[in-house]
Amino acid sequence: MPEPPGRLRYSFIRYGLRLLIACYLRVRVEHARLLPEQQNFLVCFSHPNWVDPMLVVGYWPDQRWVYIFGPRERDMKVGLRNRVIRWGRIGVPFKPSAHDLLDTTRRALWVLDRYILAVAGEGRLSDRDGAIVALEEGPAYLALRAGVPIVPLAVIGTRWLRFGKRVTLRFGEPLSIEGRRADRATMTALTAELTAALEKLLEGVREEPPPGPFGRWLTDVFNERPWLDEGFQGTKPR
Prior knowledge:
7 helices
């Protein structure tokens, strides 16, 4: 099971991320009053950019601990980014192989029994600020198994990272799972409700043109969007 980071380490990560991000972006948090009062619940956030999980942790609006579901990696000891995440102890990494599914679920449920777990429900990066790609059923499955509500969170403004740009974290009304069974039909219905909630939060969001060379580099330095590369021969994710 995940080893908690401890209050000192968690505070260092949280405020360190906030300070780092504030040097380049202006972040606004909207509708934090909608968050459930209970200690544990699941947050499903839209995911236009690699910086989104850092924003969620750094600008979380209260003192409750937030874990991030991910990243998707085979070995968390390889690469500087993975080693930093491993040191921070607030990630719930999972392997691409289905063989790790049971262990990953156990780790996620352990977190949801005690803390808040934030999940990028699309399963990959979206290509636009104002629209999501089809959600996976993982967030609904975990919430139903853990018996906790789901909070939709729209991350707005990170598709392109421009110096001084306004980025918004917009929370929506929690989706209750009270009285629902953890079966396939319920997961599908709950995922559809979550999709509608995120789309509502993104209504009116306008797409912006790419920034200059440095902004484009910073935007994509850790992003993986091979389907946007010229000459890509594979199948674009749904």
